[in-house]
# Entry
Amino acid sequence: MNFIFFSPNFPRYCTEFCFHLKNCGVNVLGIGDADYDSLNEKLKYSLAEYIKIDRLENYDEVVRTVGYYIHKYGRIDRFESLNEHWLELEAHIRTDFNIYGTKLDFISNLKQKSKMERFFKKSGVASIRSITKFDRAKAKKFIRKVGYPVVVKPNQGVGANMTYKIASESELEHFLRTKPAEVEFIMQEFIDGVLQTYDGLVNKDGEIVFAASHEFPHSIMEAVNSGHHFSYYCLKEVSGEIEEAGRRILRTYGIKERFFHLEFFKSNADGSIIALEVNMRPPGTWMTDAINYTYDIDIYRLWASMVVHNWVGGPFAGKYYTGFASRKDHLPYAHGHEEILQRYRHEIVNHDSITDAQSRSRGNYAYQFRSKDFDEVKRIAAYIHAVKNKVGVSS
# Structure
């Protein structure tokens, strides 16, 4: 199998995917914008060849490089980055070179939030009420129906960039005056609930061969707009209601041989499950590692085995709850780094700085920790996030 991995050096976990592809006998060919010498040794070992181009956004450069690889190695079996930012470029390349995977005629269904809602409706899963292409009058009419607050975000966007909660008419007016004219926004009702995910692997036959779930006590929107720190938990089990909703959506989409990351709200009002969005990529912010720590598996190896052999093994049972808690440099935390490591030396399984590209939302430094006791994991997150105030310590 000839597998072109686009931007194999970023995010960092791409190294693991490349490494396990190679160990499955795959010829892994890299295209990136980083110098070869800057790649880590594990990634260099994993790549049969690597070509640096000037700009990853330059489609002509990418096409010429793919053409070179075809001339040298023969048919290309896969073209992937496992990065949401490059979904459209990947689909374009697959379409132009007839490579297996999602093509251009379907990609907008995976990128535009308004189109996702149509699939949620077809699947019978409740979704957030929303409008697109709105002016002042249309926005006010929608708000009269759903009430304040509402959330506005790019209809086609990644993460929480340009995502805002609007709680009053003055905030609405400010948004309408200052929003970039070139960006199409979607306005959604605000759901008071807990964000939960359905993450995993679906094989070439459309069968879900692995699934996990994460819970977020803090939203990424909060972390970006308020400067707040950020946390989540990888759960030992997927709840039956998330499993059912996730399976329905994946069946409706007809997705095959993909990583998936679906987001839902569990309403605080009545416990109902409401679909938020679909991402056909690995979950970010170290969640692949959280899955590994929770299940004592190697999800990177399972993905490679699925791609090459259409088999992953299992069944897999969760053994721990794994927490993620990040800190931001501007906040006066009550407990120092060494104090955290000493107090929770048996529970902390990973800690590191976060790349600048993600630090605004995810934080500047983060810790991962696990325990068989969910309450203990929550206590560790609270300890890491405790900040000083004029009186003493505030959580």
